[in-house]
Amino acid sequence: NAGVTQTPKFQVLKTGQSMTLQCAQDMNHNSMYWYRQDPGMGLRLIYYSASEGTTDKGEVPNGYNVSRLNKREFSLRLESAAPSQTSVYFCASSERERVNTEAFFGQGTRLTVV
Amino acid sequence: AQSVAQPEDQVNVAEGNPLTVKCTYSVSGNPYLFWYVQYPNRGLQFLLKYITGDNLVKGSYGFEAEFNKSQTSFHLKKPSALVSDSALYFCAVRGLNDMRFGAGTRLTVKP
Fold first, then answer.
1. Residue pLDDT, tens place only, A64-81
2. B37 forms bridges with which residues in the sheet?
3. Which of A38, A49, A88, B47 lies 20 to 30 A from A58 at CA?
4. Angle, alpha carbons B65-B69-B109 (nearest 5°)
5. B35 vs A: CB within 8 A
6. Do the Cβ atoms of B73 and B93 come closer than 8 Å?
7. Is B46 near chain A, with CB under 8 Å?
8. How far apart are CA B31 and CA B42, in angstroms?
9. Tens digit of pLDDT for each residue in A41-57?
C-alpha cells in the first residue's frame, strides 16, 4: 500500500537553480494537488489537477509550474528557485467524483533555497 | 470561494480533560468538511469528515466533531485528552476541484 509517494524527501537548492518535485499515487484517483506548508499559514494550494490533462492554479501559483504526466503522476517544477520558496511541499490525491471523500497525502518534501 | 478558519493558533489542555479545537467555514452550497492531524515530520492524516445529516461525527482515535449549521462551525472534540494527541490539527473544506485548509491549531496536552 504505497498510497502517495513523493521524491525527494529533502533538497537544498541555490537561488536560481531549477528542480522538479515528483509525486505518484496508486489509488486510481483523478484529482491531485500540490500544497506548500509554512509556519502559521497552514497549507496553501499551489496547483491542482482535476483529471489527466488538466491543471489549474490555486492560491499561490507564482514561481511554479506543474505537469500531469498521466493519471498517476503530478510533478511540480521550480524554474528559478528563490529563498521565498523555502517550505515543505505536500502532494495529495483524492477521488474527484465523490466530493465527500478525503484526500491522501504524501510524506512531504522539505526544500531549502539558499 | 470556499474557506475555513481556525481562530486559535494554540490550544493547551491537561491530560484527561476534554479538548476542543475550533473551526468555522464559509461555503456556497453543501459543506464538505474534514479534520486532519499532522505529527512532526509527517504528512497529514485523515481524522474524520462531515456527512450531510449527521451533526455529530465520530472519527479515529476517539475524536469527534460537531457540525453546527447556524454557527457555520465544525469543532473537533475529544472527551478525554491524551499526551499522544499533541500534534497540529487542520480543518479543511472540499470543493469539486480543490481542497482548502485552515492555518492549523497546535494542540499540546500536558501530563
1. 999 998 999 999 999 999
2. B45, B89
3. B47
4. 25
5. no
6. no
7. yes
8. 27
9. 889 999 999 999 899 99
